[in-house]
Amino acid sequence: MIIDLTGKHAVVTGSSGGIGFECARGLARAGANVTVNGRSQATVEKALGRLREEFPGQEFTGAIADLHARDGTDAIIAAAPSCDILISNAAVNVIESVLTQPDEVYLDLFEMNFLSGVRLARHYMPGMIARNWGRMIFHSSEQALRPSPDMAAYAATKAALLTTARSIAEYTKGTGVTVNTVIIGPTKSDVTTALHDDIASSSGQTLEEVEKDFFTHVRPASLLQRFARGEEVANMAVYLASDYASATNGTVCSVEGGTREVIF
Question: In the predicted model, what is the mean pLDDT of the chain?
Answer without folding.
Answer: 95
